[in-house]
Amino acid sequence: MHFLYTVLIDPFVQIAGDPRFFVEVLTGGLLTGVMYSLVALGFVIIYKASRVFNFAQGTMVLFAALMLVGQMEMGAPAWLALGTTCGVMVGLAFAVERLVLRPMVNQSEIILFMATLGISFFLEGLGQLMWGGDVHTLELGIPSGPLTLGGILVNKLDLVGAAVAGLLVTALALFFRWTSVGRVLRAVADDHQAALSVGVPLKVVWVIVWTMAGLVALVAGIMWGSSLGVQFSLSLVALKALPVLILGGFTSVPGAIVGGLIVGATEKVGEVFWGPALGGAVENWFAYLLALIFLLFRPQGLFGERIIERV
Amino acid sequence: MFYREAGEFKTSYAADQAIFPIAQDRIALVVLVLAAYVGVPLIANGYWLDAILIPFLVYSLAALGLNILTGYAGQVSLGTGGFMAVGAFSAYKLAIGFPHLNVVLVIVIAGLIAAAVGIVFGVPSLRIKGFYLAVATLAAQFFLVWLFNRVPWFTNYSSSGVISAPLRAVFGRVYITGAEASSVDKYLFALTTVSLLALAAKNMVRCATGRAWMAIRDMDIAAEIIGIRPLATKLTAFAVSSFYVGVAGALWAFVYTGTVEPLAFDVERSFQILFMIIIGGLGSILGSFLGAAFVVLVPVLLSNAPGFLGLSIRVATVTNLQSIIFGALIVFFLVVEPNGLARLWQVGKEKLRLWPFPY
Predict the structure, then answer these.
(1) What's the longest Cα–Cα distance across chain A?
(2) Which of A141, B87, B102, B292 is the most buried (most CB within 10 A)?
(3) B102 touches chain A (CB under 8 A)
């Protein structure tokens, strides 16, 4: 009885008793959720255009952040370090296309997924071999610290993160909608075969999407690195982005954002109000359970393409 | 191989349907089993048994279980670690709660409990497919490991959360778990378990159940139309797979490491076992063993290689290099032979049939 009370009634009593605290928790959750979306975006971009479930996205975040912070620790100015890191991510896209994707054309999705796991191992080792496995602090002059907004306490860094994510999504949406490259990417996402037959070079498309995912990873790496420090555990953020993905749908950019918001909010609210009753650290699986229950009713996620099966 | 079936005439259906229809294959198998049972304990030392052969056997069993689910029934699962944890912790609770229960029975019941949990987490597979399912099974992984970490009842209220497996004997004084157990006994027990379960799996995938799994894997709607019930088929796949994985988890805790801890069954373990079946070969019993051997042996080789070459490298560097080489090897193998080592073995055998006269 006591357990049922702490699970079913007590959290609501708490929420009703201190609505401001609840709003604070909710805001914090939503802002963290936006940061998850940043990682999920990279997944979506690649999956949309090449049907590759890129598990290495999390490691790419770590790798980009390590490249950046490593160079800055050696004394390079921020703009130079940013420039070379972008260069490295583009190089990585070319290497992945040439060495991994091209030889594996026409393989089944699971094989490609395993290959990205291989890439993930590779990058993890390479990044730490070059820059060491310690925790690096990333100082790019992004404001951080608490800020009171309308009586609610928020972290400045989270606000910046939300703004950056908003900008990025707008930019991506405009890019997909209005540029010729964007049109090509949408065509490929729509139908590989048809795109090929009207002369879209798939190899170039792959390089473009991996480059874009690499740059998104860099942005995510900067934001996450500024808040947590650049360290190995950064690559585990990918595991937080997966429920975001299945909630939003693998192929939808807005889905990644909405999914991130849902996951971030429920996770924090669950942890703060239900966590103590269940023994704490429910953050780790709460989002997954939510996504699982959600998928039972909508197997393609919120915004995913309707799954049409043919025999 | 360089021998073939010419001149071997089958006189019964049973002989025709044998797992190894060629006499030479059967002889080779008998030799292999004899070597594993008699030769290895005579030759191998404690390091080889404890650090390589026993983990290899345990991993093979887990890979076999996942291969039934992913390779034969086509349901990608990333929850292997969670199901292993279920096996390990149920075996521990049973062994402590019923001290007179034979350890074999304990492990079998632990496997059955894991199968039940597998069925529960397999229910979503009826609606969710492909990568959505793979991510959804991560829910099982994180939830189960969290459960064993947080609920003190599972660890018998131990303060550290790490508990050691109790001393148990199969019969008489042949101890297979606990500190006093000898490596040889543990090895023989693991070998027997794995051999029996592998034989069972081989027969299962050859019979109606296995054919139903493969039909569901290849195209589930078409399978449904020809009268295969997806509910029963997918759930049996989850149950059988989780049974194998659960037994592997129990062996991991009792026979291999001797300790039961949730950390051993985290998401890395799930990925590791998925690697084994992809590198070994999806939908192949032999592939599970080859993949397990690869994943167990390559890191051992990589960590010993600098010593052989006379180089002295810092430990952290070695770990990072290992990770790089391992990642590169995975990509390399997938590029060269996406169907795994089992396929390579098959191709090799077909080449050898004609050798040395290829026409």
Answers:
(1) 67
(2) B87
(3) no
User: How far is Cα A227 from Cα B167, in angstroms, rounded to an integer?
Assistant: 48
Closest CA to B120 of A248, A296, A84: A296
What mean pLDDT is predicted for residues A29-43? Answer: 86
Q: What is the spatial distance between Cα B220 and Cα A238, in angstroms, rounded to a whole number? A: 30
Element at A124 (helix H, strand E): helix A109-131
* Residues near A55 by beta carbon (within 8 Å), at least 6 away in sequence: A113, A116, A117, A120, A238
For residue B77, the chain A residue with the least C-alpha distance is A110
List C-alpha distances in Å: B197 to B5, B78, B238: 28, 22, 16
Alpha-carbon dihedral sign for residues A287, A290, A293, A294:
negative
Are A117 and B328 an interchain contact pair (Cβ–Cβ within 8 Å)? Answer: no
Instruction: Check pLDDT > 70 for residue B179.
Output: no
- B359 falls in which pLDDT band (50, 70, 90)? low
Q: B163 - beta bridge partners?
A: B260
Q: In CATH, what is the architecture of B22-264?
A: Orthogonal Bundle (1.10)
Contact B331 A300 (CB under 8 A): no
Q: Taking the model in full, what pTM does it have?
A: 0.89
Distance from CA of A180 to the nearest CA of B (A): 30
Q: Which two tokens stand for residue B255?
A: 């026979």
Closest C-alpha among B53, B103, B33, B68 to residue B244: B68
ipTM for this prediction: 0.83
With bands split at pLDDT 50, 70 and 90, how would you rate the model's confidence at B23?
Answer: confident
Domain boundaries, chain A: 2-297
Average pLDDT, chain A: 83
- Residue B193: pLDDT over 90: yes
In a 3-state reduction of DSSP, which class is residue B107?
A: helix
Structure tokens at A119: 């890439």
Tokens of A271: 């942890």
Cα(A239)–Cα(A275) distance, integer angstroms: 20
Q: What type of residue sits at position B54?
A: I
Closest B-chain CA to A232: B320
pLDDT attached to residue B29? 92
Beta bridge partners of B26: none
Contact B330, B275 (CB under 8 A): yes
CA of A126 vs chain B CAs: smallest distance (Å): 6
Give the amino acid at A192.
H
**Percent of all residues in chain A with a pLDDT value above 90, rounded to a whole number:** 11
Question: For residue B118, which of B84, B71, B67 has the smallest C-alpha distance?
Answer: B84
Q: Helix, strand or coil for residue A198?
A: coil
A110, A288, A300 member nearest B142 (Cβ): A288
Bridge partners (DSSP) listed for residue B260: B163
